[in-house]
């Protein structure tokens, strides 16, 4: 388990989300995991995230990142792979969201209803697959 909140996911009575991130295009740069609360108006809005964990991308395999939440409720997770580590969004960067909604160049921000997950008084595990731009589409690496 990775990140400054790792202890929360090891605590059987903590409200937290363990995010398993898969599908890296490159093993470079930084991975950012952000959590948003249950208000759809706050979803991906600047300054509205509840918490952010940033980590260097590991050399291989998936990355299990723990992110603590304030308590039981509805939350949404956004993941970004900053491939070059610049701290700025670029065309080569990857993205994923809780519940793995489909993305397109015309619809980069999935609807809140498609990503929201319930979290109780125990850590919740979810898996996300990174999507990258490929021509005129956005999809996981290796998918046609």
Automatic annotation (TrEMBL):
It comes from the Bacteria. InterPro entries: DUF2141. This is DUF2141 domain-containing protein. It comes from Sphingomonas paeninsulae.
